[in-house]
């Protein structure tokens, strides 16, 4: 198996090219730029999702093969039927287009997520925000970097604000009563609406926001929504956990990330987790 540095270089190159594919559909310059929206479990899927997914999977598999790695992509994932096979310790978890609704609505908030997970935790991540022309990358213990066409620089979350001055980054869609109640009762009330988990985490590492909360309802975010953004945030000095402080687990046989998840710049992480649990308990009893 190649070393992580080599694998990261490959993943970054593939990330940039996937971003170019998505931009060609987004800006109508692709050969077949009709977006043809279909729905899979109430979530929109476009030809752009499929084209980017095929490109990423084929490129990774052509370069790295299938012996050392398994591959899970949102567009090709099939729910396991019957017995879950013991998976390989190394798994690529890919969301070729995170933020499809935003992509269709042309808000610019969409991203490419590519994560390499060892056993249940991410060790390498690439998140590309095509409209910002920025690629974020991280390896476990190696810090987070932002890359533009001019080169790359290390990047860190903000520090030194009071809890009431923190800014929450929130979804435009995927809202429900419980989440609204929680957001209305947190000690910090500044909010910024951004689509795509990758774009939300990018705003935190770019110091434009400080907290993101995910609360599953009837459905939950999936491994491919969280794996790459999580490592980008934590290697930039932030934290990303369940409300009870436990780490997220990937490649467990269940791709859903149920419950309450909090991503933050790390400063008031435990306080906010406890506060979120308290507010939700209040909501259940109201």
Structural description of this entry:
- The chain is α+β, with helices and mostly antiparallel strands.
- It has 2 domains: 4-154, Fructose-1,6-Bisphosphatase, subunit A, domain 1 (Fructose-1,6-Bisphosphatase, Chain A, domain 1, 2-Layer Sandwich), CATH 3.30.540; 167-284, D-Maltodextrin-Binding Protein, domain 2 (3-Layer(aba) Sandwich), CATH 3.40.190.
- It is 33% helix and 26% strand.
- The protein has 7 helices and 14 strands.
- The strands form 4 sheets. It has a 7-stranded mixed beta sheet. A 3-stranded antiparallel beta sheet has the order 12-14-13, sandwiched between helices. Strands 1-2 form a two-stranded antiparallel sheet.
- The longest helix has 23 residues, at 4-26.
- It is globular and about 55 Å long.
- The N and C termini lie far apart (55 Å).
- The model is unreliable at 80-84 (pLDDT under 50).
């Amino acid at each position: 198996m190649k070393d992580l540095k080599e694998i990261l270089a490959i993943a970054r190159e593939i990330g940039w090219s996937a971003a170019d594919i998505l931009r060609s559909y987004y800006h109508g310059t692709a050969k077949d730029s009709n977006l043809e929206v279909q729905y899979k479990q109430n979530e929109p899927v476009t030809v752009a999702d499929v084209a980017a997914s095929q490109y990423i999977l084929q490129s990774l598999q052509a370069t790295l093969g299938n012996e050392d790695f398994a591959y899970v992509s949102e567009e090709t994932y099939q729910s396991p039927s019957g017995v879950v096979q013991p998976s390989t310790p190394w798994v690529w978890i890919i969301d070729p287009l995170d933020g499809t609704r935003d992509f269709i609505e042309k808000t610019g908030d969409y991203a490419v997520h590519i994560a390499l997970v060892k056993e249940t935790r991410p060790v390498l991540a690439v998140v590309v925000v095509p409209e910002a022309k920025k690629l974020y990358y991280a390896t476990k213990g190696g810090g987070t970097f932002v890359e533009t066409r001019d080169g790359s620089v290390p990047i860190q979350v903000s520090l030194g604000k009071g809890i009431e001055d923190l800014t929450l980054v929130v979804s435009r869609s995927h809202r429900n009563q419980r989440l609204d109640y929680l957001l209305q009762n947190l000690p910090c009330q500044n909010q910024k609406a951004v689509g795509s988990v990758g774009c939300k985490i990018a705003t935190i590492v770019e110091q434009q926001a400080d907290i993101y909360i995910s609360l599953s309802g009837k459905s939950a975010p999936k491994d491919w929504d969280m794996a790459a953004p999580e490592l980008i945030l934590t290697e930039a000095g932030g934290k990303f956990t369940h409300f009870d402080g436990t780490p997220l687990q990937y490649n467990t046989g269940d791709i859903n990330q149920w419950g309450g998840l909090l991503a933050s710049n790390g400063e008031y992480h435990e306080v906010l987790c406890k506060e979120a649990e308290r507010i939700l308990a209040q909501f259940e009893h109201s």
